[in-house]
């Protein structure tokens, strides 16, 4: 999907919601466990219930990879089930020497057909650029992450400023706002205005609302740009909003509340 298509989708749906399919076999309702592919059955119900409210789905590959071959099959069925025209994210946090990164990119873009993959930039230029050579595909590079450990390296003060700011500026110079986004955690709302000044045009993938306590209001006020420029992810707060036969309806209600709030912020742009 290209940038203009994503911007149009956000405008049409009045939503910049990304539903995170962090589908944990331990957490899905028990009545699904007797089905042949419980993870896909869960995802299918969640997608059916939320597909008109969000603009993106993020599949965190960890929850699938841990199931071995069956998990990869659930992942493939899920990404194929997501309606065309919705932005798909493989949250795999890859990045390696150049020839290996090229095969990671082929895995998620060509074999599985995702629009984007999350990329860890700390191995440098040759680990990131292989993700940028695919038409209408995106690298979503870790910028300032939502977790406490972001203090350990990302927030180190260097002679040039904060390390994550340097990493984001340099990484941005390898691509463009048409093929690169950055992850900025919703728990880092104090920093998002400064990051937006450094990168006025890029989309930010913002995880950390809901279960991690980030404020949708604050990150929207500080992070939205003229094209919206945000994809805000919520995983557990949506997909586990309920845990019985009504889980999909409960997920819809949770997604609807986020979408309604987003529509308000978008109308103020
Ligand atoms: O890259 C990510 O998606 C990511 C980056 C980050 O800084 N923090 C973060 O929570 N994530 C992911 O976003 C999702 C957040 O899940 P919830 O906290 O359940 O909404 C998980 O899939 C995390 O792996």
TrEMBL record:
Pathway: Pyrimidine metabolism; UMP biosynthesis via de novo pathway; UMP from orotate: step 2/2. It comes from the Bacteria. Transmembrane segments: none annotated. This is Orotidine-5'-phosphate decarboxylase. SMART domains: OMPdecase. Gene3D superfamilies: Aldolase class I (3.20.20.70). Its EC number is 4.1.1.23. One of its GO terms (molecular function) is orotidine-5'-phosphate decarboxylase activity. Belongs to the OMP decarboxylase family. Type 2 subfamily. Pfam families: OMPdecase. It catalyses: orotidine 5'-phosphate + H(+) = UMP + CO2. The gene is pyrF. CDD domains: OMP_decarboxylase_like (cd04725). Residues 16-251 form the Orotidine 5'-phosphate decarboxylase domain. Keywords: Decarboxylase, Lyase, Pyrimidine biosynthesis. The keyword Lyase applies.
């Amino acid at each position: 999907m290209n940038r203009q298509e994503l911007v149009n989708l956000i405008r049409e749906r009045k939503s910049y919601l990304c539903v995170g399919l962090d589908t944990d076999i331990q957490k899905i309702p028990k009545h699904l466990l007797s089905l042949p592919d419980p993870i896909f059955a869960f995802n299918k119900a969640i997608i059916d219930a939320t597909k008109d409210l969000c603009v993106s789905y993020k599949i965190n590959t960890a929850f699938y990879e841990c199931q071995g071959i069956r998990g990869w099959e659930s992942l493939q069925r899920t990404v194929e089930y997501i309606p065309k025209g919705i932005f798909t994210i493989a949250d795999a946090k890859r990045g390696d020497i150049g020839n290996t990164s090229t095969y990671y990119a082929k895995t998620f873009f060509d074999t599985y057909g995702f629009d984007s993959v999350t990329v860890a930039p700390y191995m440098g230029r040759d680990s990131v650029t292989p993700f940028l050579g695919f038409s209408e595909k995106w690298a979503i590079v870790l910028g300032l992450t939502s977790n406490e450990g972001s203090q350990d390296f990302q927030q180190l003060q260097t002679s040039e400023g904060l390390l994550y700011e340097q990493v984001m500026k340099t990484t941005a110079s390898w691509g463009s706002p048409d093929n690169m986004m950055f992850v900025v955690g919703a728990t880092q709302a104090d920093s998002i205005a400064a990051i937006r000044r450094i990168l006025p045009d890029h989309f930010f993938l913002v995880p950390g609302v809901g279960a991690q306590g980030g404020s949708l209001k604050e990150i929207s006020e500080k992070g939205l740009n003229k094209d919206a420029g945000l994809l805000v992810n919520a995983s557990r707060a949506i997909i586990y909003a309920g845990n019985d036969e009504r889980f999909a309806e409960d997920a819809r209600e949770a997604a609807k509340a986020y979408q309604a709030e987003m529509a308000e912020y978008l109308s103020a742009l």
